[in-house]
Amino acid sequence: MTIWVLAADNSRARFFSAEKARSPLVEIRDLVDPQARMHDGDLRTDRDGRDRNPKDQYHGVGSDRGPRDEAAERFAQQVCAVLEAGRIEGAFERLHILAAPGFLGLLRQHQSAPLRQMIGTELAKNLAWQDLAAIRGQLPERL
User: Fold this and answer.
1) Average pLDDT over residues 24-37
2) What are the distances in angstroms from CA 14 to CA 43, 103, 127?
3) Once rounded to an integer, what is the mean pLDDT over residues 34-59?
4) Which element (helix H / strand E) includes 132?
5) Rg (Cα) of the chain, in Å, rounded?
6) pLDDT, averaged across the chain
């Protein structure tokens, strides 16, 4: 039984694999989103729009979400696409997710129902930049 472990935040997603429940983890993929590390001004080059109401007053028209939120949303979609492709290919039978709390919520929004059924552990903890021993230490002994 192949098991995948995902350690992620809004800028990095590391995918690990283990052949058996007690096998060591092996890093199989490392996705990095360079946009997540950019300044807001580098992500958005335009200002919000302007709108007029009937009394000739101008109002700003913009989004409640900032460029970093939008970049994190796109990255969560990308990470879930990798997980979904792995599920469809039969690359893993169980999945454990360790993700920063806010990013975990974004991942949940983009997971398919069949993918959700394969999740064994979900931990809202940012371990994407930690070493392998720290990541393995947060998982159950038997994956």
Assistant:
1) 88
2) 24, 13, 9
3) 56
4) helix 132-137
5) 19
6) 86
For the sheet containing 94-99, what is the strand order? Answer: 26-32, 12-18, 3-8, 94-99, 119-124
- Residue 104 is inside which H or E element, if any? helix 101-110
Predicted pLDDT at 143: 82
Tell me if 110 sits within 8 A of 76, measured CB to CB. yes
The answer to whether 96 touches 6, Cβ cutoff 8 Å, is yes
Q: Which residues contact 87 (CB under 8 A, 6 or more apart)?
A: 112, 114, 115, 118
Question: Per DSSP, what are the bridge partners of residue 96?
Answer: 5, 121
Mind listing the pLDDT tens digit for each residue in 33-42? Answer: 886 665 555 5
State how far the Cα of 110 lies from the Cα of 98, in Å rounded to an integer.
16
Q: What is the model's pLDDT at position 34?
A: 83
Domains of the chain as residue ranges with CATH: 3-37+67-137 (3.30.420.60)
